[in-house]
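ARCHIVE CARD
CATEGORY: sequence design from structure
SOURCE FIELD: tokenized fold
FIELD CONTENT:
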């Protein structure tokens, strides 16, 4: 097991987060070549996929009085409302076509419950409902996690913060991430990650 401590977690490198997608992140596709090059160095490789049913509660279209990027209060706290994106089985939810997906040991889907969003790969946005990833990584013997992908300030940051809270040794490889940066969200996310002991390299 000792040689299997390092896991690469590739977060949401999906068409809808790339240029031309429903929730495009500037330069989102630029992370693909670097991620492809990194894969071989990690004995454990997990890819996540944002995977929403139609009418998901994080979609502005599900809230008649709202428009995309509005902030609303859900039972579990504040939630940004997004354009419809990553619909289960859609082209937008597919991985970027140049991403090497074959090396993935595990593909984790999240955001499939209608009433709660899931930015983090570990817990849904209620901070309570587990996705099962912690158990998977611990059973594989992973202790060090490196995060790459989209978006730096949402799914990557929330995943890295949860991982740090769970006691993993956490690194975010910034050159293989791109941010949405909504109202200062990137600066806030970077500060929170630094404060939590996440290595931003
Ligand atoms: C994401 C907003 C909504 C992400 C997913 O992957 O960062 N952001 N759903
Ligand atoms: Zn989403």
């Amino acid at each position: 097991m000792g040689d299997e401590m390092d896991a690469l977690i590739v977060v949401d490198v999906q068409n809808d987060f790339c240029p031309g997608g429903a929730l495009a992140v500037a330069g989102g596709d630029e992370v693909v070549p670097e991620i492809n090059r990194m894969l071989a160095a990690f004995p454990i490789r997990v890819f996540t996929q944002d995977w929403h049913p139609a009418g998901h509660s994080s979609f502005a279209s599900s809230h008649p009085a709202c428009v995309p990027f509005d902030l609303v209060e859900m039972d579990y706290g504040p939630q940004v409302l997004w354009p419809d994106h990553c619909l289960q089985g859609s082209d937008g939810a597919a991985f970027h076509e140049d991403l090497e997906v074959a090396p993935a040991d595990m593909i984790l889907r999240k955001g499939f419950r209608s009433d709660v969003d899931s930015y983090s790969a570990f817990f849904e946005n209620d901070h309570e409902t587990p996705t099962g990833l912690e158990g998977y990584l611990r059973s594989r013997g992973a202790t060090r996690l490196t995060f790459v992908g989209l978006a730096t300030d949402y799914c990557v940051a929330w995943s890295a913060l949860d991982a740090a809270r769970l006691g993993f040794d956490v690194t975010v490889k910034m050159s293989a991430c791109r941010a949405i940066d909504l109202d200062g969200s990137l600066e806030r996310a970077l500060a929170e990650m630094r404060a939590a002991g996440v290595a931003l390299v």
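CARD ANNOTATION: Residues 152-165 form the longest helix (14 residues). The beta strands are 6-11, 44-50, 71-74, 77-80, 106-110, 144-150, 169-178, 199-200.
SHELF: design records, drawer C
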